[in-house]
Fold this sequence. Notes:
Elements: E1 5-10, H1 14-25, E2 29-35, H2 43-48, E3 53-55, H3 58-65, E4 69-72, H4 79-88, E5 93-96, H5 104-114, E6 120-123, H6 131-142, E7 148-155, H7 159-173, E8 179-187, E9 203-210, E10 215-221, E11 237-243, E12 246-251, E13 256-260, E14 263-267, H8 273-289, H9 299-318, E15 322-323, H10 332-339, H11 350-355
Parallel strand pairs: 1-2, 1-4, 2-3, 4-5, 5-6, 7-10
Antiparallel strand pairs: 7-11, 8-9, 8-15, 9-10, 11-12, 12-13, 13-14
Helix pairs in contact: 1-8, 3-4, 4-5, 7-9, 9-10
Amino acid sequence: MSTQYTVMVVGLGKRGMHHATHFHANKNFKVVGICDIKESLLVEPAKQLGNPKTGTDASAMAKELKPDLFCFCTLPNIRSEMIKIGLDCGAKMIAFEKPVALTSDEGMRVKQLLGNSKVKVVVSHQHRYGKHYQAVSDVIASGKIGKVHTVYGYAHGWAAHMLSHLIDYSMSYNNYAAPVWAMAQAAGKAKFADPKMHVSPDYIAGFVQFANGVRGVYECGGGAPDIPEVERWWGKNRMGAIGTEGYAEVYTGNGWKAVTKNGILSGDGCMDYNLDMPGYIQDMAEWLNSDAKVHPCCFANAYAGFEVMMGMFRSAAQGGQVSLPLSSGMDELEAMQKAIPDAKALVTLEESKKEYNA
């Protein structure tokens, strides 16, 4: 009989509730605590999650409960504080929402806190569990598009929400080859005032060079090209790879397509938390059970993509190519705010005008 691991979830907004619900549904886990600064958000969830302990003080609760798995789905501006709580309570695993951090200063603090700790860390790039994402990964891995030379990602949501997704999945198509440099431009400042702290430029576009010769191309935000295969604005995301004999790409909101030397392949699929979360949660249990199966959303993979994102941010602020890995931290958001012109971003879609005050 497999071990049942105790879980504490901090932040019971939409994403926190997704996590707590699927931990509760998985026989390998028992939700023993839920926490939020708004106590009113805990009443109904507690009834649905087996009546775990509730509270508003994450540190005190974690020290009392000593959960095996400490999960937090808080706003992105308090990452290092939450990581410290997870470490202090002795958790075997820490799981948290992307992005790793909003600046390289904060990201490096997170990495330093984790240091040589044996704690296993998972970052929520769970879209990869959708069947359309998996189909594209399988096509690329099988060699049906030949030798990969370019990976790419496009999204209309802003960078703090979407860029780490674009980078992480495209890097997985390239077997997480080490990034060597990044270069980017950015426009628009509306989202620097995002009330939910997902702070970033309204549009950023750039290039990444990987050590194995593969080039990455990314556009994220209001100026990204339309994804006509998808109707829903938030689902208008395209990620894929181009090889010597074809290409394969996934559309977050509407299936996938591949053009290969043997013909055209395609299939359905749509990003759905109820479909994506179970596998993501199960892989946490399997990694806790054995070091043999490292979670694909592990911190090492996420941090490599985070450095690409920060390299793009830094280039947009300072100009030129930014060498990777980064050797020191900085506040890229502050630097971009000073460097980006005050002019509004020129957006591609009519729907984006309201989102970016354009």
